[in-house]
Amino acid sequence: MANQNDYQLRLDDLQYKGLSLWQYSSLYCFTSDAVLLANLAKVKKGDVVADFGTGSGIIAVLVAAKTGAAKIYALEKQKIMCELARKNAEHNNLVDRIEVVEGDIAAADRLLGKESVNVVVCNPPYFKKGSGAEREREEIALSRHESSCDLKGIAQSASKVLKWGGAFYMVHKVERMAEAIGYMQACSLEVKKITLVYPKKNKAADVFIAEAKKNGSSGMKLEKLVVYNDDGSMTEQAKKLYSKE
């Protein structure tokens, strides 16, 4: 496992109120999926939020900047990414509301406390353990492939740390949607809304964003989000979402 001095940093403009994010160019960098998740998560003033697998801290930074969350616990397994997330919280003057916690998602209830948070957000590794991970640098493989905590474990941990009625938001690949919904429901996380994300209107949906409520009543809505027009420009729907105050 390398340390932060082994990689070159770059600073990316988040195009929102002067926010920017440090990232390691040669390691895993955030994608639009994380930004969409951060913007779709409903966080009320005073909420305590847990960001499972924070990476560079992109979701924690956006949630802190765009909502009235009182505290955001940015949980991350990799030490090098914990250091980067702390750097980004400090860089954006959010250290009073973002606390980076080093540890595994599987241990979230021990690290954060049982039934201690109002909202959990998670942009997890999309690929199952062993599905090509051996071909990637270790730090990248841990961000892209499930390791000690898979979809089932994420749902279990989210349910443990959420208060009654708390919300769980997760983005994932469409081909694993049935699997994800099954695990959430088995952990008392009732799926209330699924947003299918289409790169363009004539393309198949690539990812989905789930919103679930702990011990919620049954009943689910299905929504559609098209990100880009045919000419490559962002749709009005996506623009409105990205610029949400």
Summarize this structure as a short list of keywords or feature phrases:
8 helices, 29% helix, 245 residues, globular, Rossmann fold, alpha/beta, 29% strand, two-stranded antiparallel ribbon, eight-stranded mixed sheet
Percentage beta strand: 25-35%
The computed structural class is: alpha/beta
Rg calc: 17 Å
Q: Given the C-alpha coordinates, what overall shape results?
A: globular
- CATH architecture label name: 3-Layer(aba) Sandwich
Number of domains: 1
Uncertain ranges:
133-137, 139-146
Secondary structure: number of strands: 10
Oligomer: single chain
Give structural notes:
The protein has 245 residues and is of the alpha/beta class. The protein has a single domain (4-242), classed as Rossmann fold. The chain has eight helices and ten strands. The protein has helices spanning 32-40, 58-66, 79-91, 108-112, 138-144, 151-161, 177-186, 236-242, and strands spanning 9-13, 20-24, 48-52, 71-76, 98-102, 117-122, 162-173, 189-200, 207-214, 221-228. A hairpin with a 6-residue loop joins strand 1 (9-13) and strand 2. The chain is globular and about 45 Å long.
Question: Strands, helices and their partners?
Answer:
Blueprint: E1 9-13, E2 20-24, H1 32-40, E3 48-52, H2 58-66, E4 71-76, H3 79-91, E5 98-102, H4 108-112, E6 117-122, H5 138-144, H6 151-161, E7 162-173, H7 177-186, E8 189-200, E9 207-214, E10 221-228, H8 236-242
Parallel strand pairs: 3-4, 3-6, 4-5, 6-7, 8-10
Antiparallel strand pairs: 1-2, 7-9, 8-9
Helix pairs in contact: 1-2, 6-7
